[in-house]
Specification:
With 607 residues, the protein is of the alpha/beta class. The protein has 24 helices and 10 strands. The chain has 2 domains: 1-383, Na+/H+ antiporter like fold; 392-595, Rossmann fold (3-Layer(aba) Sandwich), CATH 3.40.50.720.
Amino acid sequence: MLIIFLGVLSQWIAWRLRLPAIVLMSIAGLLIGPIFAVISPEESFGDLFRPLVSLAVAIILFEGSLNLNFKEIRGFSKPVWRIVTFGALLAWAGGTLASHYVAGLSWAVSFVIGGLFIVTGPTVIMPLLRQAKLKARPAALLKWEGIIVDPFGALLALFAFQFVLFAEGEVTAAAFGLFFLAALFATVLGAVAGFGMGWMFEHGQIPEFLKSPMVFGVVLLTFVISDIVMHETGLLAVTAMGMVMANMNISSINDMRHFKETMSILLISSVFMMLTASLSMDVLFEIFNWSIILFVLAMLFIVRPLSIWLSTIGTDLSWRERALIGWIAPRGIVALTVSGYFANVLLDAGFEDADLLTALTFALVFSTVVAHGFSITWVGRKLGLASAEDPGLIIVGASRFTTALAKVLHDMDKNVLLVDDSWGRLQKARQIGIKTYVGNILSEHTEYEVDLTPYEKMIVASETDSFNALVVNNFVPEMGRINLYQTALHEGDPADFHSSLSGRILFTEDWNIHSLDDKEEQGYAIRSTKLTERFTYEEFNQRWSANTIPLFVETAQGNIEFFTSDKVLEPKQGDTIISFTGPERDSDRIQERLESKRNKKDSQTKE
């Protein structure tokens, strides 16, 4: 209970304070584990500890590989494959040299651990990418590298271990060759399992309510069968399974992906807490050994940047992208779990210096998580590879009213994007300098063509209520229902749409997109009114309530808050109300001039 609760609580605090979640989970695990000795997961779970962690890692890696659609890297696949092949081998060589010459490990142990330390993985990369809001290309490069290299790193370590035993005469050449057969078996097993599940999904062989549970069970089965054949090949099998399913264009892949993402977040939180809470104080004291500190610095500032820069020579990556990717390489759960396994087998094989592996691995994991977790957003913005603007807004559906609304937001220096599938309806917006996109917001093409990372909120205001509801439900997992708005319903009874099927209703339920467009045609205009000590929100309501629709409030801090049917705003002094107001009457203009003169006189008196 404590592990799950504190893990999820750490994720929530990180979201609220915009901090790296992995760092908070690591700190929480250390506090309840070695520092205050509240729990000891390894003792509590006993023999189940390692298997539970391994199964959790398998699910996490499979969920990450479900996002590896080859369409995402169309146009920059060359640097991806260079990084995960040539770059990984360079990192292996560099890690081996650093382990031997800096950390003082024997060549055999260095050869094994050098292969393992090339891993980054979805357990650490995905949370950082959610936090940093990097641009599409560097984010995709880091994601693909992390997910593909995770099983590759475990396999390299296993290959190195088998090679060391062969060189020592412990195993025969035939036994050493079995490693390659086991890796091939794992790949084929995962691909067949993925294709089989995809085929059954598309041919209606599995009902909707059983799809996620069935995949869950098959992932574990595939992982365990492969791991029984040869230890650590299960990660390769589940990665192959996820990649095959991701590229089969399965109609229900998104629903399944959302379920797996929820499971993955829960498992990442729990496993990271379990691993850090299981460390001993002796391991923590060992971390402050000078040789370990120098090893971590060498991996951070020499091995990683050098492997990326050399492996991407001749690609179209800019120096900024190479610099960012060369810096970001946090190690995570796979490094911790797999290093524990190799520490034991190396000690059993007679390599006494392998007892340093746990401290070495945790030092690298914690250092990279902290260094990269706190710096990724800052470095991304400095290099122009992350959104430096305030969170933006997408408006779906171009009309007279939404174009006017987008112009006001644009003039207020807000990052706004107007999306519609009609070139003609977007013409006016383009003429006045508003950022536009022609296409269906729900199409797969849009997903890969438009970088939605900088946008935090969305207004859906097409002429079709059912389409609006569909768009809202599609973006709930990414943006959250609290940030999704739509104009009032105009087709049938509003009770026909359950609140869970629609976004927050903008303004009031009396004004739909058709009535708003009609008012704009009649001469209504969007205007701003700043609240002062003399002119309060109450006075605003009294004067303008007859022919005014309040749209949103820009607070004194520059934040945007929309008026909705489910929330009553209370603007304060210094806030600016943006409203949709009918043609002014003579008395209104006279009153406004008098108010302006009074404010000017008060200002002169104060001066």
